[in-house]
Specification:
By secondary structure, this protein is mainly α. It contains 20 helices and no strands.
Amino acid sequence: MEAAPTRQPTAPERDALTLPGALRVKLASRSRSEKVALALIGVAFIAGAVLRLHAIGTNQRLSVDEFGYVNNADRMLRGESWGSFNWAPGTPALFALAAWLRGYANIAPITHSHGIAQHVQWLVEMTTLVLVGVFAWRIGGLWAAFVAVAAMATYPSLIEVTRTYLSEPLGGLMLVAMVVAAAWARRRTLTGTGGWRWLIAAGVVGGLACLAREDFLPGIAVIAVALALDARGDRRRAIGRAAIYAVAALATLAPWVAFASNKNGRFVTVTTGGTDALFIGTYLPGDGNQFQTTQAFRPAVCRRFPKECHFPDNDAAPMFQLITAEHPGDNRNQAVTAAVLSNLSKYALGQPVSFAQMLVRKAWEMWWDPWSGGNSATGRPDTSTTVHRIYVVLAWLGLLIGGLLYRRRWSVIVPTAVFVVVIAVNDWFGPEPRDSVRLSPLLFALGAVGLVAGLRWAIARRSGPGTLAPST
């Protein structure tokens, strides 16, 4: 008996069996507008890569934080005990891993560096570009993705941070990853496709984000609360989803917290520098700023320690030495904690209007002034203030528009809430323009979604009533 003849696939079907063929089919189904958007996204991505490569090697000086990150990375490479707990472990661990994979024994913190650390920063920035584009595309479409990628690719501060040894690149990536992972896991739980596994994965990503930047810790709480409130008729299941996420995040943090707490003889979340920063951020006479606070303490330091009177304004060590001396019987951390409580009682409760004005002013200055990488030999910004403000104003405008048009969409409202809460918490710890750099990728993603949605809404209003914003 002859076998039945097998039908041969058509040419389009044969193309669809291969990955390039499948991509061609998908591209062929795109509208002309979408094809233009895809092409422009590619151009923006290439521009971002080139601009960042060009920035590598232009650093003219190193900050204390940069030396701290590199020192901890080098200690990891040498198998020594951890150096300072003033900095989160994520960036040193990333540097050490990259150096180990390349066979390097150490990382040299030098100016005009083209070393492994800078190329890791470049790779992290490019990964963030991809993630920002995917996030904006999934919510607002390809044109929103283009606006987000173009903004991040050409934003001066995000270009210049590539040349440093700082944690801002990894922080920016992990903040976006935290909210994207949570949104994806929440969607999977609603469709019933292994949702609990995705919740665990999202929790792990959230925990890793906090190990990159300790100020992301409130984001874990925001996401957990949002999952618990997303009941959809089943409050018990919603609380269970929130619990799975929170436990996974805390379990990811637990080994580091146990290690850091054991080494310091007291409970440590991620870093030990939070109390010092909180004192500076709540000291009203110093306007919550490190430079002005150390200047305010200079006369008292000189009277108590005449030999240490000549110290730069960016050196807070003599000030905290004075605070410790003024609290006999307490160790340094106890003394600074007591000083923080005094600030809260004296200024936050005693002068609430002036204290609130200081918080508003600090938040404004965090975004209004550009960060130039701290690498200008003259100390003057080497970025355009005008360009910076145009980017920031448009992004914040898009954030507000998106919050209105997507007010019932979880994947917009929750990331926006995480973003706002992280800023609010930073505001109490003496924020600087540099703190806005790691938040900018998420801002540009949300801002792009809002701007494009607002434009579509305006066009729809001219054509007829209705809104284009999804409701879920």
